[in-house]
Amino acid sequence: MTPALRAEGLTRLWGTFAAASDVSLTLEAGARHALIGPNGAGKTTCIDMLTGVLAPSHGEVYLGDRRVTRLTQHERVKLGMTRTFQVNTLFQGLTPLESVMLAVCERTGSAWRWWRPVSGHRAEMDEARALLASLRLEGDANVETRHLPYGKQRLVEIALALATRPKLLLLDEPAAGIPASETGEVFAVLARLPQDVTILFIEHDMDLVFRFARGITVLVAGRVLMEGTPQEVAADARVREVYLGEAAHG
Fold first, then answer.
1. What is the DSSP string of 3-39?
2. I need a labelling partner for 125 at 20 to 30 A (CA). Which of 8, 85, 164, 211 fits?
3. Which residues of the chain have pLDDT under 70?
């Protein structure tokens, strides 16, 4: 079976400094995979290269069996690759319903007819409402985004990503800035996503990582230290020493 995502030897150089070096990654369809490592390990740089925010200095990216290394972010979204960012990029003056409906219209090609009355976008509105309901945001559908708690704003960002109907969803610290009491809700939503959606996420909260991920890649200083199941990663002395803060013998 063709992997959902394959990265081969991704390297990003800034002058002589390698922010990421020879990073390879393969995700099967439906994977729930975490990318972890200490600050400065190159995690976001890798996500940026996978999604087209940054061009790799060396290496290749494949979505399914298609090479997408030189495609733009927009072109990758059209092929089913969607991401969220560590700091949300929402339209604060729009409601979640308006934002998600606009994203649906963009996907269906009807965004250019946005001037039509709402009744002319009934299918798009119904889809947007259903998507918000699946994320338990139906009660906030008509509240301006700026008035929502930050945790719900992160859920709106996930709703926007899902409105593109992604095959591959990349999440850069989806729990960042969310009160601890709300992080469980965000990951509970992710756990309910269809199994045909492949997820790669960056997260610093190891409790969340070990609860949600089925596979983990550990980056240190821009390189892959190891890859394995949560149990294998938790038991690895190198990981405990360089990332979890325990002595190698601990």
1. -SEEEEEEEEEETTEEEEEEEEEEE-TT-EEEEE-ST
2. 85
3. 85-89, 111-120, 243-250
